[in-house]
Amino acid sequence: MAKSVIKVDGMSCEHCVKAVSGAVGAIAGVSGVSVDLGTGTVTVDHDPDEASVETIKSEIEDQGYDVVE
Ligand SMILES: [Cu+2]
Fold this sequence. Notes:
4 strands; binds copper (II) ion
């Protein structure tokens, strides 16, 4: 199990929190998601063999947000 902190641009309200945490939380292998609007970060507990960081990042981008490298 890994914990990854992903910096994301464009999240500004509870709608964004729900969209991102819902989409990331639905990925197989993800066991926890928390979104911090203050720091613009998404913290994800995941099994890296099942849900890679790349998979998680592309899901966030599919929701319309920009992942900051
Ligand atoms: Cu929003």
